[in-house]
What we know:
Elements: E1 14-20, E2 24-30, E3 36-43, H1 50-68, E4 74-81, E5 84-86, E6 91-94, H2 106-113, E7 117-121, H3 122-133, E8 141-147, E9 151-157, E10 160-161, H4 192-196, H5 198-210, H6 217-220, H7 229-237, H8 241-265, E11 269-273, H9 275-292, E12 304-307, H10 314-326, E13 345-349, E14 352-355, E15 358-360, E16 364-366, E17 372-374, H11 377-383, E18 389-390, H12 392-398, E19 405-409, E20 417-418, H13 420-427, E21 432-436, H14 438-447, E22 452-456
Parallel strand pairs: 1-4, 4-7, 8-11, 11-12, 18-20, 19-21, 19-22
Antiparallel strand pairs: 1-2, 2-3, 5-6, 8-9, 9-10, 13-14, 14-15, 16-17, 16-22
Amino acid sequence: MAAEKPGNGKNGKLYMGVDVGGTKMLAVLAHASGKIVARERTETPRGGTGEDTLAALIELMDRLIADQHAHRDLRAIGLAVPGVIDEEEGVILASPNMSTAGLRVAEPVEERFGVPVSLGNDVNMGALGEKWVGAASDAATVIGMFIGTGIGGGILIDGQLLAGATGAAGEVGHMVMLPDGPLCGCGARGCLEALASRTAMERDIRAGLAAGQTSVLTQLAGDLKVIKSGMLRKALQQGDKLVCKVLGDAAEWIGRACLNLRFVLDPDMIVLGGGLMEACDFYLMPIIEKAYRSDAMTGGSGGRLVVSALGDDAVALGAVALAQQSIGKNPFASADKLISEYPMIEGVRPGEVKVGGKNYKQDVFIRADGKVKNRRKLLAKVDAPSPHAIGAAELRRVCKGGPAVLIIGAGLAPLASLTEDGEQFLCRRAIDWRILPSAEAAEAFNTLKGRKAALMHVS
C-alpha cells in the first residue's frame, strides 16, 4: 500500500504492533502518537503448529519493514497473542483456540529484528488501544470484550492493565454462563465463549442447516467452511431467520455477561470489539444493551456500553502502546501529538474547498490519521435518502481510525444531517459530532485538539 516514508515522520522513531489472531494477523507501523503509517496482514495458518504460526508472523513483519524501508527507524515491537502468557519470559502458556501453547515468541522475534519485543494478551492490548486513542480515552475503569474465534477480555483501572495473580485476569470468555452447556475449547462446558463466540455462532448455524433450516449463507458463503463477518451482516440485513436467531441468542449471552461484569467492577465503560461487532453492531447492540440494562437492583443505570472506535486496529495499536511502555515511554503522554499532522481546511466557498493546500471541487473527508479522501456519493445515495444525509455505512469509512470528534461542514442548503442509524453508529463508538456551516466547520476542525475527523460538503 502507498504510505509516507516512515523515517521522515514528525514523531521520529517507529513502533510495530502485531495482532496475532486465530484467522488473521495484522501488523502496523506507527508513530508514538498512534498514527499508523503502514499496515500489512496475512492469514493465520489453519491447522498448523505453533512453529508454523511463528514463521508466518516473522514473514509478515519482514515484509512490512522491507516495504517501508523501516529497518533503521524501528524502535520496539509489541506482539498481541491470544491466551494466557508469561510476559517476562515471552511465552504463551495456554491458548484454547490455537496450537501455540508453550511457544516462545518474544525471543526469536527479538533475535530477528534486533529491537526490544514485548508480549501481551490480544484482548488486553485491544482494551489498552481503546484507552490510549479510542473510545475509552476519557474513562478511568475500562473493560474490553472482543468477540472473535474466542471471546477475551481486558481490564484497565486508571490506565493500568489488571493482570491478576497468574496473568489470567480478564478471561471473560471462560466465565461459566450455562452449566452443562456446550463444550468449550478450554475443556469446560457452558463458557461464554462456547455460547457466543464466532466459533459458537458458526457451529450453531451449521447445525441449523444440517437440521433442514435454510439460509442465504449457502449462496453467500458456498461450502460454509469460513463464514465471514460481511456475510453475516448481509444475512442479517436480509432478515435471514437462522442467522438472526443464532446471533440474537449470542447477543443475549454477551449482554448478560456484560451485566455480570458491571456488578463486579462497576466500570465507567465496557468496549465491545472484534470484526463481528464492527460488521453487525446494528443488530447485536440493541439486544446486548437490553440485557445489559435489565437488572432490577440498579434499574439499568451504570457504565456506558460502546463499540470499539478503532475497529480492526484496536489490538495492534494496543501492542504499539505496549512497545512504548517496554522501553520506558508513556504512550499516553504523546497521544495528542497527532494534532500537528492534520491538514488545514481553508478557502471554503460554494463548490470548492481547500484542504492541505489542495483545491477540491467535490465533497471530501479527513480521517483520524490525517489522510484526505474523496467522498463516495454513490455510497451516500445507497446509505441515506439524500446526499446531504449521512448514514452508518458512510460513517464507517469516514471514522476509520477512531476520532474522538467528527466535524461536519454543512455546505449548501439543505443542511447536512445524520440518519438515525448514523447517529447510533457514532453514539455506540463514543464519537462526538458537530454539524456546522462550512466556514465554522473549517475553523472548528483547525483549532480542535486531539483525534478528529471531518466531512466537508461543497455541493
